[in-house]
Amino acid sequence: MNFIPTECTTQSTPLEFLVFVSIMERQAVVLGDEPTSSKLPPEKWSEVIQTLIQGIKKKKISAGFVDAIAMSGSLLQAHFPISEKTIQMSFLIIASY
User: Fold this and answer.
1) Global confidence as pTM
2) pLDDT tens digit sequence for 30-44
3) Radius of gyration of the chain (CA)
C-alpha cells in the first residue's frame, strides 16, 4: 500500500501519516510519508492499530480514533519535536458499512 502526501502543511519538512480503516474488510493500517517512515517503521505503529481495533470492537469507533491519534502524536513527538508554528492536522473520515 502506498501513501502519497498532500503537501498541505506549514512545516519546512512535510510530516504526514494516514490512518486507514475498512470495517467491511476488517483492515486497519497506518502509513507514513517519507520522513515519518524513515524514523518510525511499520512495526512501531502496531500498538496504534491495536488501540484503534479495540475501539472498533467495543463499538466506540470515535474513541478508538482519538486514542490512536493521540498515541501517534506521542510516537511522532519523540522524533519530530513540535512547536506552535508546525502544528497542522487534517482529518478525513469516510465510513462505509
Assistant:
1) 0.70
2) 888 888 888 888 888
3) 13
